[in-house]
Amino acid sequence: MSRFAYVNGRYVRHADAVVHIEDRGFQLGDGVYEVWAVFGGKLADAEGHFARLERSLSELRIIEPMSRTALKAVIAEVVRRNHVREGLVYLQVTRGTARRDHVFPAPDTAPTLVLTAKSIDRSAAEAKAAKGIKVVTTPENRWGRCDIKTVGLLPNALAKQKAREAGAVEAWFVDELGFVTEGASSNAWIVDADGRLRTRDTNANILRGITRSSLFQVIAREGMTLDERPFTPAEAVAAREAFITGAGTLVLPVIAVDGKPVGDGKPGPVAARLRRLYIEQAVASAI
Ligand SMILES: Cc1ncc(COP(=O)(O)O)c(C=O)c1O
To answer: Which residues are catalytic?
Structure first.
């Protein structure tokens, strides 16, 4: 089945979708992106992701390519054309195409907008969640504005590769004080020895995960205790459970950190329950 992408006003076959070689995303990493999970053909946590996209653009002074309403219509069309019921939508906006120069191009330079959508096998994802994943740690080496979701993902790509080569799936960045900041493409959590949930506060240099904040609602509803504080890799190993959150992974149990088992080395009941409740909430509120 053909896949389609949206590139600057046109729906094109995925295989033919291109941007100019002087696009500032390609030349300078001068762009932002956003990812939505799709459940039943609808966007999960939609408004949170739109709000973060608008904030990322505004922090970098990149023009919004179109209104939120227009963007929703384009996304719906990309989802429809790709026949995605369960999957992901990827959106990227760059500062546009201009002769290579570090300084911003002329103010009337149109931003580049690219959208793709792909299907996910939810039963394979559930099987993965039932097994859990391993993570490795790596020194934090990213810039000071990780709250902006930029396409400048080189440290994240290197960290993920390190994880892959160690037989793990995710890498957790560790700051100079020895605390986990977040994953290369996810937020990091533990269930501590007292059964309290812990994830790093967003005053730190991390991405304000939308799945993370949606899960806060689930946690509040369930009357569970949440501690917005950082933890060390050793605390994760000593914890009852660990897990990650993200639009791609939802809530995914972590069973080992740097080769050391977390808890009994198996996915725990809290992460499994939170995954189920998060998905229920995401499905019920998808638009
Ligand atoms: C570095 C990083 N942290 C956290 C997340 C989780 O964010 P969200 O839940 O909004 O997908 C991501 C998602 O891609 C990420 O790249």
So the answer is: 149
Question: pLDDT of 58-85, one tens digit each?
Answer: 999 999 999 999 999 999 999 999 999 9
49 by DSSP, 3-state: which?
helix
- Return the bridge partners of 88, or none: 37, 118
Q: Please indicate whether residue 94, judged by its CB atom, sits closer than 6 Å to ligand 1.
A: no
Residue 64 token pair: 């919004």
* pTM, two decimal places: 0.98
Going from the C-alpha of 169 to that of each of 137, 186, 250, the distances in angstroms are: 11, 11, 14
> Rounded to 5 degrees, what are φ and ψ at 137?
-105, 155
Residue range 10-63, pLDDT digits in tens: 999 999 999 999 999 999 999 999 999 999 999 999 999 999 999 999 999 999
Report strand pairing: 197-199 vs 226-228.
parallel
Tokens of 277: 């409740």
Coil, helix or strand at residue 278? helix
Residue nearest to atom 14 of ligand 1 (CA): 185
Instruction: Tally helices (H) and strands (E) across the chain.
Output: 8, 15
Phi, psi of 161 (to 5 degrees): -65, -40
Helices 46-60 and 210-222, axial angle in degrees (round to 10): 140
Dihedral, CA atoms, 124, 128, 131, 136, nearest 10 degrees? 160
Rounded to the nearest angstrom, the distance between the alpha carbon of 99 and the centre of ligand 1 is 32
Q: Is the CB of 245 under 6 A from ligand 1?
A: yes
In this prediction, residues 107-115 reach a mean pLDDT of 98
